[in-house]
Amino acid sequence: MPSAESTPTPVPESAPEPDLVPPTRYDKVAAAGSELIGGPLGRRALIGTSWWTPVRIVALVAIGMFALGLIQKAPCYNGGWFFGASSQYTHACYSDIPHLYQGRGFADGLVPYFDKLPGDMDFLEYPVLTGVFMEVAAWLTPGSGSIQDQEQWYWMVNAGMLMACAAVIAVCVSRTHARRPWDGLLVALAPAFALTATINWDLLAVALTAAAMMMWARGRSLAFGVLLGLATAAKLYPVFLLVPLFVLCLRAWKWRDFGKALAGAVVAWLVVNLPVMLFAFEGWSKFYRFSQERGVDFGSFWLILAQNSDDPLTTESVNTLAALLTSLCLAGIVALGVSAPRRPRFAQLAFLAVAAFILTNKVYSPQYVLWLVPLAVLARPKWRDFLIWQACEVVYFLGIWMYLAYTTSGDAHKGLPTDGYHWAIGVHLLGTLYLCVVVVRDILMPERDVVRQAGDDDPSGGVLDGAEDFFAIRSPAHPPRHASRFEGPQVEWGKQDAVDSSP
User: Which residue ranges have biased composition labelled Basic and acidic residues (predicted)?
Assistant: First the structure.
C-alpha cells in the first residue's frame, strides 16, 4: 500500500464558470464588427484561460476610448478655452471644467457651499458629493503659473479622475450580467460616451450607479442602497431607480430587500448631505434652488416650444408641467411593471425611468447621455439598436456646439442656425424614444428580449432573478430558471438568414 506521504492530496474543483454569451454568435452587427479583429468567436474557443479576460479587455478598451476623447479636446486645451468664445464650439471641444475652476472660486481657495462666490452665482450649484469631487481635484491642481496654466492642469486632473470612473463603469456593466461580460464593450466603445465624458462631472454619479446595479445583481441589497444614495448625493437622477425597484419588489414580494435598499440609500445620502445642510444650508440648497429657478434650456423640447412661441411659458409653468409629465411617465412604468405578462428585468425599467426624466426635463445637456449608456446596455444589449441611438446622440453633440458657434460668432454666423438646432434636438429625442420603444416591446413580448433568449431571467435583478410572481394584474408567466447553455440564434456567415433580424 502506498504511504500517506505518497498519496496525492485531492485538489478541490473550482466552481464552474457560467456559460458565457458571446455577442458575435447571436448579433449580426457585433459579428460584422469583429471581422476587424479576426472574426466571430469560434465554437471551440477557450475563454478566460489567460490574463486577457473579457472584463480586463473591456476596461482597457474603455480607457483607450476615453483617451481618444481627450485627444478630441486637444484644440481647446491648446487655447480654445481661453482665446476665443466660438473656437471651443466650432471644434466641439467645450468643457465646463476649466471655466468653473475660476468661475466657482476654486482658483481662489474658496470652500464650496460655505464661501459665497462673487457675482451672480452666489454658491456652487452642484450636489454635495460632486462638489467634493471638484474640491479634491482643486487640491491636486498646481497653484503656480498663469490662470490659464492652472485651468489646464485642473482639467487634466479631473480627466484622470474621470477616467477612473469610466473604467469602473465599464467593469461594473461587464460584471453585472455574469454570462454577458462582453456587453461591456458597448459602454467602452460608445462614441457619445467618449465625446461627452469630460464636459462635466457626471461620470462620478454614473460610476456609483453602475456599481450599485452590480451590487443588486449579486443580491447585496444594502450595498446597492448605499451606493445609490451616494450616487444621488452626486446627481439627482439615480433616485429614480427606486421607482422600478419598488414595482418589481412588489410583484415578487421582496419587501425586506427593498427596505434594506431604501434604508441604505437614505442613510448614505444623509451622511453626505447632513453636515453641509446643518452648517451651510444656503450653500447646500443652491443646487435645488437653481434647478427650480433656471429657465428652459438647451436640448429639451421645451426650448423648441419657447423659441417658436410669441408667448412662451413661464419657468414656473414649465416646472409644473415637466413634473407632471415625469410623474405620468413614471406612473406608466409602474403600470407596465405590474401588468407585463412576465416580470420585467430591473435594468429595463431602470432605463425607462431615467429616460422618462431626460425626455421631459426642461434641459438636456449633452453629457446627460452618460446617465443612460450603462442602463441602455443592460436593458437592451443589441448592437444595432444601441448604435442607432448613439448615432442620434452624436448628431445632437455636434448640433449644440454648432448652434452655440452660430450664436457667438456675431455677423459671421458660423455654425447651425436655430431651426437646424431644433432638428438636432428632434434627432436626440427620436433616438431616445426609439430605444424606449424597443425596450417596452421586449417587456411586452419577452420572447424577443435578447437577454432572455439566452435562457436567463433577470441577471441584473439579484433576489428578483427567477423569483415567483406574487402580484401581477395579468396571470404571471413563470419561466424556467436559467438555461445551462446559450440557446439563442447563431451567426454563421453565408447563413445570415438564420439570425434574428427583428428590430
Answer: 494-503
Burial state string for 416-453 with b = 16 or more CB within 10 A and e = fewer than 16: beeeebbebbbbbbebbeebbebbbebbeebebbbbbb
Q: Residue 18: its pLDDT value, please? A: 56
- DSSP states of 326-379: HHHHHHHHHHHHHHSSSPPPHHHHHHHHHHHHHHHSS---GGGHHHHHHHHHHH
- Residue 405 is assigned to a structural domain of this protein: yes
Cβ neighbours of 302 (radius 10 Å): 23
The backbone region for 132, taken as left when phi is positive above 0, alpha when psi lies in -120 to 50, beta otherwise, is alpha
Alpha carbons 242 and 250: distance in angstroms, whole number: 12
pLDDT at 501: 36
Closest C-alpha among 454, 448, 213, 251 to residue 333? 251
- Class of residue 334 by CB neighbours under 10 A (exposed 0-12, middle 13-18, buried 19+): middle
Average pLDDT value over all residues in the chain: 85
- 119 Cβ contact list (under 8 Å, min separation 6): none
Q: What is the pTM of this model?
A: 0.87
Instruction: Give CA–CA dist 436/441, Å, rounded.
Output: 9
**What residues contact residue 345 under an 8 Å CB cut-off, 6+ apart?**
379, 449, 451, 452, 457, 458, 459, 460, 461
Query: Rounded to whole angstroms, how far apart are CA atoms 222 and 311?
Result: 49
CB 410 within 8 Å of CB 215: no
Rounded to an integer, what distance in angstroms lies between the CA atom of residue 292 and that of residue 84?
31
Give the domain extent around 217: 52-477
Spell out the residues 6+ positions from residue 465 whose beta carbon is closer than 8 angstroms to its own: 217, 456, 457, 458, 459
- Rounded CA separation 95/80 (Å): 10
Reading phi first (left if > 0) and then psi (alpha if -120 to 50, else beta), residue 119 is in left
pLDDT for 49-89, tens place per residue? Answer: 567 788 999 999 999 999 999 999 998 887 778 766 788 99
> Given pLDDT bands bounded at 50, 70 and 90, which one contains residue 163?
very high
Q: Are 95 and 198 in contact (CB under 8 A)?
A: yes
CA–CA dist 64, 70 (Å, integer): 10
Cβ–Cβ contacts within 10 Å for residue 197, how many? 27
In a domain, 3, yes or no: no
